[in-house]
Amino acid sequence: MKMRYLAALPILAALLAPLSSAQVPVFKFDKTKSRIGFNVKASVPIAGKFDKWEATMTFTSTDVKTGVLDIKAQADSVDTGSGMKDGKLKSKDFFDAENNPYITFHADKVVQTGPNTFDIPGTFTIRGVSKPQTLSMTVSGIGTGEGDIKGILAFDRKDYGMNSGIPFIKIADRVEVEVSLHGKRVSGPPMNVKQ
């Protein structure tokens, strides 16, 4: 009798697995409509994007507060439109891409600050240095199952060991990481967001 119950456990687990994953919203980002970039005030504009990156957002329930956001950009995929600037940013003076190939942000909670605004406190890592930072975001399309997430994460480059400059260019210390993600709910119920 015991053996019959043990044999039924894998079947029961297989039947319940789709139910548990279907009870949480699942979102996918469209990379053709999304962008991870940056902007630094300087005597010669320094702005660009990362050509290679991944981003995921998962939830453990329909409560927006349970959101987990992960962003991972390849440091050597930086593209400012200038080979000279790209080379300098990839060097040991800035991203140190050879020794620290990824720039990451990980957050495991979301704080709603308004009807369509959110703060996402997490850990930002660049050059192998990790510090707490907050990504402030605005979301469009709430309740439709598809929309855009746009936000800024600002940090002081010197806090991460980027103390050098670029010859003949005056660079500000503040760097803004610009996140623009187009997402779509591909399964599960709608999110519970305060309007």
Automatic annotation (TrEMBL):
Residue intervals of the Lipid/polyisoprenoid-binding YceI-like domain: 26-184
What is an example of a Pfam family matching this protein?
YceI
Nucleotidyltransferase recorded as keyword: no
Keywords per UniProt: Signal
Q: Which domain of life is it from?
A: Bacteria
Q: Which residues form the signal peptide?
A: 1-22
This protein is called: YceI family protein
